Amino acid sequence: MRGIEDIVVQPPQSATWQVHLDRSMWVGGVRGLMLQALHPLAMRGVWQNSSFQDDPFGRLRRTADFVGRVTFGSPEEADEIGRRVRGIHRALRIHDPDTGRTHRVDDPELLLWVHCAEVSSYLEVARRGGLGLTERQADRYLREQRKSATYVGLHLADVPGSCAEMDAYFKQMRPSLRVTEEAASTVRFLMWPRLPRELRLLSPGKPGYFPFGALCYSTLPDWARRMYGALPEVPAAAVTAGLLAFRLAVDALPEPVHDRAFMLATRRMLRASRERLGAAGYDVSKGLKGLTDPRRWPKSPAA
């Protein structure tokens, strides 16, 4: 009988499962992009090598696909997307107009910044939004995310594996961060994005997106918001209340409806994951999110 490690990269018993199935991930994902933009070289890498300005939702969905595969996918699916991402990064370069130098996109320092900005955002937003993780579980999440970092080419030992290590990393990085023109444009764009062609019919409702973008911005660390100065400060209690309300509203969506926001390939991967877990004895009648309840696990997990 197959072990759970042959079925999914991260098992339902992991802290990663708790965080990555939390619907606040949508806020955490946009917040992560805003935080990443503060690294001048990382921001220029995105600006020069992607269609982010034309399709920000595509960037978010591709990130969701990667995160999904290295969480809920099979080891083979995670290895495949890791090879694909590393291959793309290996071929890309960044021109730094400040120095005239050319840098590799897969520079370990840049990869580490992107990873830390992303996973710290997922964790902090989920916890603030009401996901009841203890300090030990939060540390466990970051320790588990070291494995995810290896898929983009980082080494386990180089990646923060606890909240204290993550805090120390950001403290070390802050002197090298600044708001470039590209970063300022990115934050404005994430709060008022251009809709992709296939979603242009939704343009009349675009003003309704701004509260979501503002919520993502308001969850940034105090020091990051001070650097940007893009919006007036909102009381912390109001931001937390907004997160709680967002999480409650999106949690009310049935899993099949919620999953329509993902790319078709991602939805197929999630469906295959449910089928494998069901065959292994997990009760998937409530979807993957239902497996955050230990009562739906086999009596002997890792069947």
From TrEMBL:
Residue ranges of every copy of the ER-bound oxygenase mpaB/mpaB'/Rubber oxygenase catalytic domain listed in the record: 17-234
Q: By its UniProt entry, which InterPro entries does this protein fall under?
A: MPAB/Lcp_cat_dom
In terms of Pfam families, this protein maps to: MPAB_Lcp_cat (PF09995)
A GO term for molecular function: oxidoreductase activity
Instruction: Please give the name of this protein.
Output: DUF2236 domain-containing protein
